[in-house]
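Put briefly, the fold is written as integer tokens. The lines below illustrate.
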Amino acid sequence: QVQLVESGGGLVQAGGSLRLSCAASGRAFSSYTMGWFRQAPGKEREFVAAISRTGSSPYYADSVKGRFTLSRDNAKNTVYLQMNSLKPEDTAVYSCAAGRTYYSSTYPYDYDYWGQGTQVIVSS
């Protein structure tokens, strides 16, 4: 069992930055692929980024590529999503997820554990 707790969300102006964190408790954090998804009001959940167990080759949605950076610290059981050049369309609840996939999956069904989410609001 893995518990995930996100933090770092908030209100920011367009062009600003936020750093989201996802702290995991439980065993074998390093054995999980970690992903971030987001859901805006009235929209379906959307893949944002994922990172493999070793932290190599993070994978990003086209909408955030070049602006967001995903990293993990297995010693701290934490993943970080650095979000730069934020846009109003980035406004959503951001949730992290953990899964035992062997690759950086973009599909929610590949993830077994989910956090409660943290709200990000980008004002224009």
